[in-house]
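ingest -> validate -> predict -> emit
validate: passed (alphabet ok, no gaps, 59 aa)
predict: started
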Amino acid sequence: MANGIEAYVHETKREASLSYQDGEQTVLLAGNVSVDRLKILAASLPSVTSDSFPYGGTE
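emit:
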């Protein structure tokens, strides 16, 4: 990802998933969207140790 974190992706015609490590936690994002949209979402999330996780900065 753009922030230097290594992410693993899987995409089919109907759905996609993206997972990455944040410290000792694994974050998994999945849905009927493209991998590009999941990358944008992942980049907007704070660290899992943040009180605002899983909400981005605008929530």
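The longest helix spans residues 35-44.
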